[in-house]
Amino acid sequence: MGRRPRSARLRDGLGAEPLARAGVAPCPREAGDATVSGDAVPDEVLRRFLLARSRLLELPWHVGAGLSPSETAVLGELAGETGLSQQQLGERLGLEKSTVSRLAAAMEGRGWLVRERDPADRRCYRLRLTPRGQDLARRVRADVHGHHRRLLGALTDEERAALTVGLSALTRVLDEEAANRHPT
Length: 184
Hints:
Blueprint: H1 6-11, H2 16-22, E1 35-36, E2 39-40, H3 43-56, H4 60-64, H5 69-78, E3 84-85, H6 86-93, H7 97-109, E4 113-118, E5 121-129, H8 131-153, H9 157-181
Antiparallel strand pairs: 1-2, 3-5, 4-5
Helix pairs in contact: 6-7
């Protein structure tokens, strides 16, 4: 029996041969899977990743320290910055203005950041981490980096390379989509 066409392999769960070499079982197809140019989109793989992503963001140390995933992301964005406006932070994290305002107020109350009026535009606040916030951001970054190193260390070199290409491409497409939705 000859090799099946690429579109058929993709429809059957991303292609059995590369998945089998990687030791990954193909995802089952669900009724109504979306298609692009006749090839199945790996909806189930993406759905499973997004569910796992939420668990990834809730690392035990951060939860134990009372950090939400959003607070962890804010610490990561503000670390090393001399100050970002609330609008800039919201754009980077994809958060609404009111959400950023509540997060900033809560984190200011915990002593992790300060909100200062922007001297160039008194209507805006600039956010920067306090020394205590910088210290927390360093500890969180080291913890997250170690966790990522453990996760990626469980992959083969081939899987890491494929993941890098795939995530880079997905990030590019998401950035382009966001830019088209919100042109500057």
